[in-house]
Write a structure and sequence with these properties.
- By secondary structure, the chain is an all-alpha fold.
- It has one domain (about 5-10, about 45-545): Sodium/glucose cotransporter (Up-down Bundle).
- Helix content is about 70%, strand content about 0%.
- It has helices at about 10-30, 35-40, 50-60, 65-75, 80-105, 110-115, 120-155, 160-205, 215-220, 250-265, 270-275, 280-295, 295-315, 325-330, 335-370, 375-400, 410-415, 420-430, 440-460, 470-475, 475-500, 505, 530-545.
- α4 packs across α15 (about 335-370).
- The protein is globular and about 70 Å long.
Amino acid sequence: MNMGSSISLVDTIIVIAYLLGIMMVGIVAGYRKHTSSDQFFLAGRSLRWPLIGTGLFCANISTIHLVGLASSGYKDGLVIGNFEWMAAFCLIVLGIVFAPFYFRSKISTLPEYLEKRYSAGARTFLAAIFVMSALLVHIGISLYAGAKVLEEFFGINYVLSIVGISVITAIYTILGGLRAVMITDAIQAVLLLAGAATLTLAGLLQLPEAGIETWAQFKAACKPDQLSMIQPIRDAAAPGRLGLREFSWYSILFGYPVLGIWYWCTDQTIVQKILAAKSEKDGRDGAIFAGFLKILPVFLMVVPGVIGYVLYRDLIGGNNDATLMVMMKQLLPVGLRGLMAAGLLAALMSTIEAALNSTATLTAEDIVKRLRPQMPDATLVLIGRVTAGIVVVLAMLWSTQGGKFGSIFEAINKIPMAFAPGITTVFLWGVFWPRGNRQGAMAALFFNVVVGILYLAVDIPLIGSEQLVAKRLGLPFMQVGWYLFLMSSVIYFSVSLLTPAPNRSQIENLCWTRPFDALRGKMQGTLTDPRVMAAILFAIMGALYAILH
């Protein structure tokens, strides 16, 4: 389906004006004649919790979410919303468990924390993994998704779209640094949520026109289990010998935290906002505030997909990736389509800009500065900017391969399974178990990367089309991540116990002595105390799951 003919001149002008406007805002907001590395990479450590929370949310929400969640809502129903709501629990873990040590240690990067906790080798290993994940997932696959949207809208070749989006985003990110990223994120969050809310409302208002006036009628028009967040483990229709559901409660409950803790608590692209906090409390509150924001995508991005199934399944048919496009064409008038397209671009650019800034930070702080400690700040900033430019070019080349994956959603979740379980292992147990040492950490990381690469080699059809684990065996990738985490943890504990214990004086400020120490301490305010905010968020999530189980 090509929607180029459905986009008016007015819509086109709106999109172009947005692109030029956001680029200028980013440059003006972030650019300074004499920029220190701390200002460029971490905004001078001056961010307050509302901006941190918004930035975390925007760095995560991309065009993949807007298009992919609507597509998955149409195909699978609300169950895909678990990827959004489970994130709220991981953000609580970030705010309560990890953020205090990140802030107190005054680190600039997450690999730097691993060096303090384990060794320099762990820092280098993690920096390399983070740069590759940013290039392959955060930027590369996001570019592909955004380009395909623009191709549907305007009939522009997706390669040209990739180049255009990359250049515009890179300009203000490279010039403005993290401050530019955070300011533009705040603007883009408003536009993104407004566009998604408008489409959702338009869909709800259209339901009576289709004879759907009650909840019972709506539920009857949906597929079985399409409105359920929790699904059984097995399904006779599932592929492979095991016949396991892709998104069963078991896969979500055990598999998602492995992926979620890696992404939300240890990924430089995300956690960089916490490192830029003005105070420890701002960093912790910002993380939990982002958890509240993660409630919204289920209602604003997944539900529209379900509505699309009820209203337009005859138009969409088996092409569920066209769900969002069809709904925009059918429901939105001229002008609003342009604003929605701008919202899609906002989501895409916010993800790319965050990843670019993090790769610049990792290269400058974890590689260059370690080799040349006395290098001037101006040179570090320049190196960071050059790195961001190189990563953009490589990501553009990689993004052209996005169509070889089974789906965009599959790509962004399966690729991290090659390394996420090992990283989750060394960070999680490193914070809670003081006995864990560098030997255990390196053994777990190497094991996971080797096994993870083998898993990807047999299950991602870059060459051929056979998926041995997912299709022939029938083991969902979420469960693969859980089992890899268990094996990595066994190696971590075993090797650590068989080798000398770390020096307690060196790690006493880098991990909790007792598991519940994270919940102790003097109250900081009332409702804005991180623990109180976390409790409120936990209660809300529990109530939502009780309603939509």
